[in-house]
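Morning. Coffee machine broken again, so started the prediction first thing and wrote up yesterday's gels while waiting. Chain of 254 residues, entered below exactly as on the submission form.
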Amino acid sequence: MKKPSEIVRACYAAYEAKDREALEALLTDDFTFTSPLDDCISRERYFERCWPNSEHLNSAFDIENLVVQGDKVFVQYLAHPKGKPPFRNTEIFTLRDGRVAHVDVYFGRETGEAATQEEIRAVLGARAAAIRQKNVESVIACFAPDSVRFSLAPPLQSDEPLREEFENWFATFRGPIGCEMRSLCIDTAADLACCHSFNHLTGTKTQGEKVDVWFRESLCLRQIDGRWQITHAHESVPFYMDGSFKAAVDLKPA
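Came back before lunch.
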């Protein structure tokens, strides 16, 4: 049987090589993972949520300290993400019968906030892509089931179930929909996030009407079962204060 230090080094080697099969063989079936962003998530959730980060590395982990105490292995390393400054993490591995049963990761506030913002940008990027493709299932996956939505179209608050709302909306367009987010800002605190952006919507309605409008969007997201989901969405355009009360759909961001 390999020594604890060899098992842990093999985990890092698999991560560096982006070899998921090799890493899976080193983890127990009931493996769990904890970090400032994850509360003892399962093996399945770890590979769904954390494994994709392996694609962001462009070089090896520089292991600075590795200490073995019984079934625990303490590691401190310097990681090198693509296009970003290196960062330092501390990890504690718990081994059982020659495999890794649990990992605790500790990193600083700055690293945690950057990771959180990247996850939220990924969720909003996936939603925009799903809208462009008119993919109802993928759009729904970005929202919490009990989300509150204030859309551009009446009524004052969307009262349709998510599925019906997007199925009916997508059906009003002929062909694909253009969807772009610009000037996205994200503020996070624990498991809550607030975002605002300018959004560009384009397309052709079923009766031939062209749509080309910029609007404002504010979003609230909450981390639910380890996933960031939209709990509140508010879309709006200004209206002209000249007495006409017409929506100012001709405005564009600077």
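Helices lie at 4-17, 20-26, 43-49, 109-133, 136-140, 162-170. Going to sketch it on the whiteboard this afternoon.
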